[in-house]
Amino acid sequence: MVNVVSLLTTSAQRHPDRCALRFAGRRTSYRELGDAAARFGSALLSRGLVPGDRVGLFMPNCEQYLVALFGAWHAGLVPVPMNAKLAGPEVAVIVGDSGARALIHSAAAAPLVRGLELADVHTVEVDPAAPGEDGFSRLLAEGTADLAPAEVGADDLAWLFYTSGTTGRPKGAQLSHRNLLVMTWTLLADVCAYTSDDVVLHVAPLSHGSGLYALGAIARGADNIIYDGAGFDPDAVLGLVGRERVTVIAFLVPTMIVRMLAAEPADTGSLRCAVYGGAPIHVEHSRAMLDRFGPIFVQIYGQGESPMTVTYLNHASAPDIPLDSAGVAHPGVEVRILGDDDAPVPAGGEGEVCVRGDVVMRGYWNNPAATERALRGGWLHTGDIGRIDERGCLFLLDRSSDVIISGGANIYPREVEEVLVQHPGVAEVVVFGVPDETWGENVVAAVVAASSPPPPEGELISFSTAHIASFKKPKKIIYLDALPKSAYGKVLRREARRLVLAES
Predict the structure, then answer these.
(1) Can you tell me the distance from the alpha carbon of 76 to that of 4, in angstroms, rounded to the nearest whole number?
(2) pLDDT, tens digit, for every residue of 424-437?
(3) Amino acid 103: pLDDT
(4) Given this model, what pLDDT does residue 114 score?
């Protein structure tokens, strides 16, 4: 098994002068990207890091992201990509848990990073607006392009993907070089067969889906445009597609698609593929996207623990598969529905969606108990409830956990509750999601106040953003005299949600 960086080094050898990246009007060739990756890796080794050490990536989409990602692999280091919107305490937890020896962060995040007082961590500042003048450029100048790619084993750690459980405590899914390479082969075989003629647009975070699917684009020598807007602007994105004759949008979440449907008409005739996933999409939105843009879409279902690769639904090649399905399993990936006793349920029966194959993580970082629960019996237990029909189509029915999916991002109620309960005006709180046409779900908190009058809604919302990312904050606070509880005193989250929805 080869190092994942071979996806880049091979393309740099075959297509040295072809454009690899475009960002903010700048172009980077495959030769330049390969050299920069080698320099990045060698510079970190010269600063005392050794193969296997973790490198945190805390920055928004930019060309330096892919340099750092491939550069870490070049040196045998392990990237730890993080959502650029995380709050300081969340970053501190991930850096501490992963034992990261270096943290590459944006200039905008510099005050936050300084406040973390990270000991024995090399911090490097990236300023996409001032290339050549920032700490990242100085780091590259320390390195050499002559560094040979590190020798790795198939099951050596390649990407530490942090996700959360129902407790809200982040868990690092250990993705190996085997996992990422098999994921890439599966992408190219079933989802989108990138070619060197493709112009691929990345609008979703490179720390998640778009970064994972960039591997296939780099492997095939495609031209990658990294969207440089401050936020997702559907009119700007569709205008970019028309101007640059974009052929593939690497990854979208349903919220983006819904917003694109409301955008002004644009020339999207160059598009041949748009990959989407990360959350369920309403059937009416599926119909509308196919009517407007054509059958260019491919839906994927996966988790951080089985990155981007469980089932897929190609709307062009499989128009007979129901739109409310998550598609069929990739060849080489086994999907099974298991009951509470971990025994297979009868055909068509409901149970937990479980997965087996070479894309499944090797376990959680430093968390053997969680690993045992998730991988018991040799199957990844996804926590999702579903059924498989007679044709092998997977239908996702619900989630066994109470995770909220808003705009394609996972939000875990417990972590929001842990913040809100710290406010002196909150006696008890339960958090849940309610349906929203645009975002999929919105975060709502039901609160029992500790005093009268209760704290203003805006005060609690502002309080939460000092501790967690803004996208996780409650959109609404509902005050109750008491939270619904079971006979054993357990708060009934779903009952609280039902009461709120009944009154709205």
Answers:
(1) 10
(2) 999 889 999 998 88
(3) 98
(4) 94
As a whole number of angstroms, the distance between CA 502 and CA 480 comes to: 14
3-state secondary structure of 361: coil
Q: Residue 235: CB partners within 8 Å, gap ≥ 6?
A: 263, 264, 266
How many Å is the Cα radius of gyration of the chain? Answer: 23
* Domain spans, the chain: 6-388, 404-503
Residue 164 pLDDT: 61
**pLDDT tens string 222-238:** 999 999 998 899 999 99
Q: Is the peptide bond before 79 cis (omega within 30 degrees of 0)?
A: no
Mention every residue, 6+ apart, whose C-beta is less than 8 A from residue 48.
101
Q: What's the whole-number mean pLDDT along residues 372-400?
A: 91
Q: What is the DSSP string of 16-75?
A: TTSEEEEETTEEEEHHHHHHHHHHHHHHHHHTT--TT-EEEEE--SSHHHHHHHHHHHHT
CA dist 137 and 433 (Å) reads 43
Does position 488 have pLDDT exceeding 70, yes or no? Answer: no
Q: Cα 373 from chain centroid? A: 22
Residue 166 pLDDT: 41
What is this structure's pTM? 0.88
Assign domain 404-503 to its CATH architecture.
2-Layer Sandwich (3.30)
List the structure tokens of 320: 């007979």
Tokens for 183?
A: 């994921």
From CA 174, how far away is CA 162, in angstroms rounded?
9
Topology of domain 6-388 in CATH is Rossmann fold (3.40.50)
Positive or negative torsion for Cα 15, 17, 22, 28:
positive
- Which pLDDT score is estimated for 377? 96
Question: Tokens 């700048």 identify what position?
Answer: 26
Of 436, 431, 426, residue with least CA distance to 473:
431
pLDDT band at 1 (very low <50, low <70, confident <90, very high): low
Give the pairing of strands 78-81 and 102-106: unpaired
Enumerate the H helices of 228-374 as residue ranges. 234-244, 254-261, 283-293, 368-374
Q: How many residues does the chain have?
A: 504
Distance from C-alpha of 233 to C-alpha of 222, rounded to nearest angstrom: 24
What whole-number percentage of the chain has pLDDT above 70? Answer: 97
| 195, 222 contact by CB (below 8 A) | yes
In this predicted model, what pLDDT tens digit does every residue of 312-324 receive, in sequence order?
999 999 999 999 9
Contact call for residues 477 and 461 (beta carbons, < 8 A): yes
